[in-house]
Specification:
It contains three helices and eight strands. The protein is an alpha+beta fold. The strands form two sheets. A five-stranded antiparallel β-sheet has the order 7-6-5-4-8. A three-stranded mixed β-sheet has the order 1-2-3. A hairpin with a 4-residue loop joins strand 4 and strand 5. Helix 1 packs across helix 2. It is elongated.
């Protein structure tokens, strides 16, 4: 697509999600931000969620918003556009969010209903490794000791994972 071209939206009841994804990815390809999610509601409310390995700035959101808006034609299809960052305590939606949070404490709810808290040690396309801390009392000991246990989970086993934010 040529820079500055308007995306044709002819004969559409609503703006297509794929069009917005392509536009967002084209803009973000030259940025350190990455696309998390795009949704298009029936009333043409477009919501674009982005993230960054360190922090998303208001300028990042504004630049992406302008880029998308300049390439859609309001004469053909009216729309409302919201561009924002992934929330600080929002569940992860894509693998890159898991990767960026390696070494951080997370809360994970498994599909089985079990809730875990641990340190996200590794993440790849297949799943994650979580380091859990358990306190056990060794036989004959008076006090409990901390034991660190690595557990591997496929994404299909995970209902959600979100960062734990602690203010000290």
């Amino acid at each position: 697509m040529k820079r500055g071209c308007k995306v044709p939206l002819f004969f559409m009841d609503m703006i297509e999600k794929d069009v917005i994804i392509r536009l967002a990815e084209a803009h973000l390809a030259t940025s350190e931000c990455f696309l998390v999610e795009v949704s298009v509601k029936p009333d043409n409310l477009i919501v674009v969620e982005i993230d960054h390995d360190t922090a998303v700035s208001i300028d990042d959101c504004a630049a992406l918003s302008r880029y998308i808006e300049e390439r859609l034609d309001r004469e053909v299809e009216d729309f409302e556009l919201e561009v924002g960052s992934a929330g600080i305590s929002a569940p992860f939606k894509i693998v890159r969010q898991y990767v960026k949070n390696r070494g951080n404490e997370v809360e994970m709810r498994l599909e089985s209903g079990e809730k875990l808290t641990g340190t996200l040690q590794a993440a790849d396309e297949q799943g994650v490794t979580l380091v859990l801390t358990r306190e056990i009392r060794p036989e004959g000991a008076k006090r409990k000791v901390k034991v660190f246990e690595e557990q591997r989970y496929a994404y299909s086993e995970i209902k959600y994972t979100k960062p734990i934010v602690r203010f000290k």
